[in-house]
Design the sequence.
DNA sequence: TTCCGACAGTGGGGTCGCAAT
DNA sequence: ATTGCGACCCCACTATCGGAA
């Protein structure tokens, strides 16, 4: 199919841009799939990866070191759209190479060169693509269907290949040239990251058990960083959830894996910094350890990382992804010493499960992941076999300001600035922002109400309000903040409901918030 | 015909590395 | 030394579509 035209570089960027615009205009998913599949049916082999990549909102280069700031004031646009897909891709590779060597001036010059060769229509597309905000209503999920349609392969086969390969453009290009047979050729490869299985969520343990089916496994949810560890012989590589390589930052994990008897492994788990008493450090401490590259020795002494595995995808050359959870666990338990296993309990009894939840929270951890004993390791799809449960805190806070929204929230005041009451000063202390939990109806209501309370603008996007409106906020915890004046910020704040029955004087105080930060 | 699973969008706080100031 | 940008850790929630029931 790809060799239909037998030439190279015949697809123009403008072709891709036009399809993207058609996808944006079409609300029906099947319609979007149709537009995408039509283009995929006429791209050359060398262009398939680029087209699939762009039309699912990412770059083949992953990141090129160019963001919104570098993209301000682009050069004048061309009138004729002549840029080919392969030309644009080559320029982006050059930009990435230069970014790796320093010199922002050289990078800026190349970005200018790229944009000077584009029409304003193409510039607008590239701007959104490079800033990661394509917003055409199609990402991997829709693209999988489009690849299936264009190649004639079942979408389940495309999805399966994506799980094993971890990168959709490569999978799509293979499907377009080699069809189903090419998709079946993708195998789990030690040293190359697999798309990790993700968890859905439930409000409580009972609901999670109902979703997962009973009995189910209740695993501790540790507040660390997800890791996928590969070992082939004495070579170990470690990947994050987004498949970035962090091998160099986690020597403890590398040593732990090298200490295992099997030398052909792919394991799934979590790294976390624990205190000497075994309780977890705040998430920031683990995150800092995992992203710090230099000065590792001292850091390692001060804040060692622990690893806890919870799944085995491959052991001793055997691929385990299709086995039910219970069988993968058996293999894992035989492969890894007990100290490296994520603590868990198997039960179908709600009261026992609820007590276990209370215990894990008491131990300082984040919650539980409830897992079906029968589900295979299915990447990408959230909510199938794994369900996370976390406790929820709430506070009544005062809305101090609001920011104008973007996209479908344009023209609506969307993002709330939240404050706790400070009895000492008689004022309010900002604890963070949230835009989550708002229905369209609530969004419309609050925009109207906020404009009544407006008392000026601090900047172009922000409207400051008379501090009168009380809103009930749910959040996961209070963390130390270098940004906000009170030194505290809410983690994962979201709106539950407005409290018209309460006045600002009834809102929760900074002291209450501080008592939650332990 | 109704229900519900999967997806995309809309942004949140914190941290590091790096280049420029 | 500090600042700003880019990238990436962690992420919750609602609206919508379309297949399942």
Sequence:
């Amino acid at each position: 199919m790809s060799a239909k035209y037998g030439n190279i570089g015949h697809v123009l960027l403008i072709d891709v841009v036009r399809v993207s615009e058609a996808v944006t205009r079409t609300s029906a998913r099947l319609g979007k799939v149709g537009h995408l599949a039509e283009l995929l049916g006429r791209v050359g082999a060398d262009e398939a990866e680029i087209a699939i990549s762009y039309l699912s909102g990412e770059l083949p280069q992953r990141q090129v070191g160019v963001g919104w700031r570098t993209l301000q004031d682009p050069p004048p646009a061309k009138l004729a759209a002549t840029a080919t897909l392969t030309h644009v891709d080559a320029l982006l590779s050059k930009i990435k190479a230069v970014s790796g060597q320093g010199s922002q001036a050289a990078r800026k010059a190349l970005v200018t060169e790229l944009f000077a060769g584009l029409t304003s229509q193409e510039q607008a597309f590239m701007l959104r693509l490079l800033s990661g905000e394509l917003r055409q209503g199609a990402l991997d999920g829709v693209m999988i269907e489009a690849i299936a349609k264009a190649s004639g392969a079942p979408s389940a086969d495309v999805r399966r290949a994506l799980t094993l390969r971890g990168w959709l453009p490569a999978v799509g290009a293979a499907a377009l040239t080699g069809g189903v047979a090419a998709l079946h050729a993708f195998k789990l490869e030690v040293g190359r990251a697999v798309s990790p299985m993700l968890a859905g969520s439930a409000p409580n343990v009972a609901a999670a058990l109902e979703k997962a089916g009973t009995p189910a496994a209740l695993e501790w949810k540790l507040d660390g960083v997800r890791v996928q560890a590969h070992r082939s012989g004495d070579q170990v590589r470690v990947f994050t959830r987004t498949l970035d390589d962090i091998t160099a930052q986690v020597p403890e994990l590398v040593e732990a894996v090298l200490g295992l008897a099997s030398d052909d492994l792919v394991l799934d788990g979590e790294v976390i910094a624990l205190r000497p008493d075994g309780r977890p450090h705040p998430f920031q401490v683990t995150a800092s350890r995992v992203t710090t590259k230099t000065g590792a020795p001292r850091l390692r002494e001060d804040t060692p990382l622990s690893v806890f595995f919870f799944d085995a995808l491959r052991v001793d050359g055997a691929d385990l992804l299709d086995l039910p959870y219970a069988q993968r666990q058996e293999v894992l338990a035989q492969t890894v010493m007990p100290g490296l296993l994520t603590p868990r309990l198997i039960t179908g009894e709600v009261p026992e499960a609820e007590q276990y939840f209370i215990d894990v929270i008491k131990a300082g951890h984040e919650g539980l992941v409830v897992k079906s004993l029968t589900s295979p390791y299915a990447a990408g799809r959230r909510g199938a076999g794994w369900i996370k449960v976390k406790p929820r805190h709430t506070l009544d806070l005062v809305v101090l300001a609001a920011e104008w929204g973007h996209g479908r929230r344009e023209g609506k005041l969307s993002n709330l600035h939240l404050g706790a009451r400070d009895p000492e000063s008689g004022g309010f202390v900002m604890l963070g922002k949230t835009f989550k939990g708002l229905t369209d109806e609530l969004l419309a209501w609050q925009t109207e109400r906020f404009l009544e309370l407006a008392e000026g603008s601090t900047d172009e996007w922000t409207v400051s309000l008379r501090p009168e409106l009380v809103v009930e906020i749910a959040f996961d915890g209070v963390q130390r903040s270098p940004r906000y004046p009170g030194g505290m910020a809410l983690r994962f704040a979201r709106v539950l409901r407005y409290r018209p029955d309460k006045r600002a004087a009834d809102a929760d105080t900074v002291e209450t918030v501080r008592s939650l930060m332990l």
Notes: The two ends of chain A are 61 Å apart (CA to CA). Confidence is low (pLDDT under 50) at residues 1-7 of chain A. The first helix of chain A runs from residue 13 to 25.
